[in-house]
Amino acid sequence: MKREEPLFDVAQLAHLEIYSPKIEESVAFFREILGMSVAAREGKSVYMRAYEDHYHNTLKITDHHEAGLGHLSLRATSPNALERRVKELEEKGYGIGWIDGDVGHGPAYQFKSPDGHLMEIFYEVEYFEAPEEEKTKLLNRPQRRPNIGVPVRRLDHINLLSSNPRETVEFLEALLGFKVNERILDEDNNDIAAWTSVTNLAHDIAVMGDALGEKGRLHHICYWYGYPQSLTDVSDLLIERGFEIEAGPLKHGVSQASCLYVCEPGGNRVELFGDAGYLIFDPDWKTVEWKGEDLQKAIIWQGAAELPADFFRYGTPVREEKVPAIAGQAPIEEETEDVRSVTVEESKEQAKV
Amino acid sequence: MKREEPLFDVAQLAHLEIYSPKIEESVAFFREILGMSVAAREGKSVYMRAYEDHYHNTLKITDHHEAGLGHLSLRATSPNALERRVKELEEKGYGIGWIDGDVGHGPAYQFKSPDGHLMEIFYEVEYFEAPEEEKTKLLNRPQRRPNIGVPVRRLDHINLLSSNPRETVEFLEALLGFKVNERILDEDNNDIAAWTSVTNLAHDIAVMGDALGEKGRLHHICYWYGYPQSLTDVSDLLIERGFEIEAGPLKHGVSQASCLYVCEPGGNRVELFGDAGYLIFDPDWKTVEWKGEDLQKAIIWQGAAELPADFFRYGTPVREEKVPAIAGQAPIEEETEDVRSVTVEESKEQAKV
Amino acid sequence: MKREEPLFDVAQLAHLEIYSPKIEESVAFFREILGMSVAAREGKSVYMRAYEDHYHNTLKITDHHEAGLGHLSLRATSPNALERRVKELEEKGYGIGWIDGDVGHGPAYQFKSPDGHLMEIFYEVEYFEAPEEEKTKLLNRPQRRPNIGVPVRRLDHINLLSSNPRETVEFLEALLGFKVNERILDEDNNDIAAWTSVTNLAHDIAVMGDALGEKGRLHHICYWYGYPQSLTDVSDLLIERGFEIEAGPLKHGVSQASCLYVCEPGGNRVELFGDAGYLIFDPDWKTVEWKGEDLQKAIIWQGAAELPADFFRYGTPVREEKVPAIAGQAPIEEETEDVRSVTVEESKEQAKV
Amino acid sequence: MKREEPLFDVAQLAHLEIYSPKIEESVAFFREILGMSVAAREGKSVYMRAYEDHYHNTLKITDHHEAGLGHLSLRATSPNALERRVKELEEKGYGIGWIDGDVGHGPAYQFKSPDGHLMEIFYEVEYFEAPEEEKTKLLNRPQRRPNIGVPVRRLDHINLLSSNPRETVEFLEALLGFKVNERILDEDNNDIAAWTSVTNLAHDIAVMGDALGEKGRLHHICYWYGYPQSLTDVSDLLIERGFEIEAGPLKHGVSQASCLYVCEPGGNRVELFGDAGYLIFDPDWKTVEWKGEDLQKAIIWQGAAELPADFFRYGTPVREEKVPAIAGQAPIEEETEDVRSVTVEESKEQAKV
């Protein structure tokens, strides 16, 4: 269901909140490997940003008993645009209500996707002001390049798992003006996954079907380099410090992304985006549909034979014990009987196999 | 003069027309060095595109007695948006009138910038359909990568010379919704140059003051690679085939572009953009202003000491005989008396010195 | 068995001969995809070179009923060095005898490795002289960069399959002065594979155990780019022209090579080497030994989970019908009974699965 | 004067000693920007290495009242080779005598080039042993990639200034077996500069004429990345930390090096080598000669118009007061009268203009 006229009320994915059961290790990962800096600490949360993020922060990590998505936050294109979106979200029954704001931004309206992902939209934002010693003469860059890790440049996108990806995508289209740029379909033309954006990126928010049938989970968050070599460099850092790279460096067909995937210590999957992929300027872009025999190229265009099975079932919060039959096998009974939550550590260990 | 509310009626820079006094040599340059293909030939024009351009064509080269800009063409975000822009352009007295369309697109409304650059806006577009043998399994790419030259991927931007850059930029802002992302100012805060966009790029249209005081000239057009290595590769092709690279590979501060500049055989300057620069998602981006001692870093961030003097005075059509005093010398009288046009070949030869 | 004193009689791997049952398609592959040029045609052979190969040719492709290694050719460091090597090869019983030379080089002494690989050593060589229009001002490059394919720069190395890798390696060490730079060992410290060189490269000749127990087969030949981006570029060309990339772009632990593998149309595996790997200047380099749990990193350092099974059993000439039990299955009887040679086409099809 | 038979007694440039009047700032530069580590401190010296240097150290920085070359150190290919070289150096009158060794290597024989550069040759070397936490599973790498700066991988080469470059080069050829791979000649075929090696590199030792006519000075030392992107990355670090990049990233014609030049805080010029350049395997390589109109391409193949004038006159120890007339101006009298040594800081300030 597309709008009749294009909607320009949402400008961008502005920041993300993830939960971590190992918050200090998570912060250390983003700081030491990805070169991000701590913008603030408040309550149970640490606020971070990449060196070309212009806002006060783009990542909020909150101490929690399990990993997962806290919320995703969108910035409206204007105060009026914010008002229009809030009105419509309220009318259609997705709304939760206003919060006063958070570290780095003003009043925000909270709402939930049909699958239960917590989202918010706001307009007033606080810009990062570099301390004198971090300033750069490259005036379009808010601070100089950090001298640790292989520093990511900016927030890129988020990938959500959904029990009903089509419903989630239609919500993004209808209520928020996201365009569906690429889509993977099964044989019956059901959505397996979709890549949507309000910007010229091939995706700001991707939605993938949750193989476990869970609601509201997170597949991954993504930060951006813009240079494929950075993936080679950071891979060395990761491998030599004991992190298991789940997949990549490789190049997806979808979005033409050069990328790699790794779990941060809290258990959330992080993608690092190496090049520029491709950009979409066409206001009437016809959704690229991948299905059947084209599917393999959608997933891997270059660089690996295939993605590991876990890539399609691991998400946060971790619900590994509900893994259904894989590759034609019946569900293993012992596992489905045991309903305890697998701890993040355990699940991450499994994901590493 | 900014609009009160952001304007989203213009989606993108859709295609360009350049004039060439050596049309077949120009076509050969874009085809053999930049890997572009000929989409059509009609009348005095050849229509070309890069392999990731989705429309029928993005470059029209028209046989003409001298080099220069034919026109630049913008695509509206919707039929209604087109109507709104036409109405306002007409009302404000910039309009020329409708044309039936051209090879690759439908009806277009022509108008002129205050400095006399011919522009048009349209909505209906024809998409490129690859012949069977050129199709690719990378479904978001309209055809496979060509096997000649170091092929550019898509049209990126245009840079106009203007006798009054501030006036031209204010026109783009007020009438078409371009945002001014970066700006170079002189000591009295007059615009020397500005980088504007309707997309997330740092610039779709740049405007630079014409050192010769001419109206309506072209500084350069730009195609995009997305990979710095491509600049190294194409430099070899260019140098070893006798093309003089005017500047680069280097990295500008403005727009963070890795790029190089070379004149195509018709005399028009072409920029090749190597990486992704940086993207702007902030709907309220505060124009980056470069002036005084910051200026040098605006022009060169990495890779060369400075740009050649010609970079700041050479444009098309060529008007070299009006070059004012350079480096403290008085204007040479013989030249100012001789008012004939320097031929493109002569001027290009000069530009190569 | 190492020599007491280092031996410097062999300077380099100078050229290779491969057999092809589809010679014109093989030539087209090396010319159109890898940008190599035809230096000569004589008898049943076509002689080719890469644009930074300084000699007349580095690859001889000979029409033959099946793919495989023709011979590998070494250049001695001096006429005296040639004489010393010939004398010792003769004395130890490996010699075959002198030939008058071939297109591009003078008299050569032929001999066989213990596993039956045909080799030769020579000193007098003919240099490539570029025709006027192919000359470059980059005087250390013998011709300008070709404008087709993603052109490889020079011959890099060869990888031989051997029924007895240790014996083959000891031959290279003792008779020719190759150093064993890296080695993969099984649990009983038997050689699975070894990487040897007379240059500062990590390998000029690699030797891998033949999983089929065959003698004298070829695993792959390798040409060099020096830039990882070239692998991305050529992957597009390959994939979009219907070639199946067997593995990569990826980064091996062994030799730190960024590379990819693809079969040329004749069936011989070709490696393309993207970066510089690492170089060895230490005259007393201690062989790097990979075994047990380190093995996986030897094979894949970055970029893929693992190599396909065929990587370890496919070689030329193709002897697929002798493939022993794979993945725990018993040998298939029908196949072992049928002793006809699988055609190259069939085997390549199999290799592509 | 070439030897009749190639000489293989010298294996490599093993390490360098530079003098610094600001030793701790020099150490900080190599550690924080280039990611090198301190291997030892002893007496007035600090010993450092890059993370892919296999020996105990490759750079000795010694506290001294002015910058310059301490010595350069060559490793022989064997104990016998060492003995042969010492014998010949002694006989020809270049010898100084044996030292017991230094941190990281055994007994070394000291000698001087005809221009007075202190050199040594040795065989016994100490290998770096990484502490447990720095070990890597990439077994051909002696330690994991450091997590600071943009870490260089290994020592590459040294470039000496000489009052008589031909004499210095002939010494390297005749006494030590260096091959002259490339050479720049003036109109009378006098050597302006030469690039020589005992390895497959295009140069281990380069020699350039000293524009000031001084003896025994250093032009630069060079460490290696192998990836052009690393130059972009480290440029950001340098520029944003107040270091002035003297030239680059650019690509020389000579050696095909992608590189940049920067002075370390002690005043010595450091080159960073981005890619692999090209390698020479031909044992009878014909020296590439650049002169006349080819000269410009020798110096700059890609990326800048020209090198700054200082590149051709600045060396260490600094003797700026002897700079002759520049750009047609007569020597400034006040300066020529004042014969005091310009301090390194002053000269570096000047070099930065």
UniProtKB/TrEMBL annotation, chains A, B, C, D:
Residues 338-353 have a biased composition (Basic and acidic residues). Its EC number is 1.13.11.39. CDD domains: BphC-JF8_N_like. It holds the Pfam family Glyoxalase. Residues 331-353 are annotated as: Disordered. Keywords: Dioxygenase, Oxidoreductase, Repeat. It is an enzyme of class 1 (oxidoreductase). The keyword Glycosyltransferase does not apply. Signal peptide: none annotated. GO terms for molecular function: biphenyl-2,3-diol 1,2-dioxygenase activity; catechol 2,3-dioxygenase activity; ferrous iron binding. The keyword Transport does not apply. Residues 12-124, 154-275 form the VOC domain. This is Manganese-dependent 2,3-dihydroxybiphenyl 1,2-dioxygenase. It comes from Bhargavaea cecembensis DSE10. The lineage of its organism: Bacteria, Bacillati, Bacillota, Bacilli, Bacillales. The gene is bphC_1.
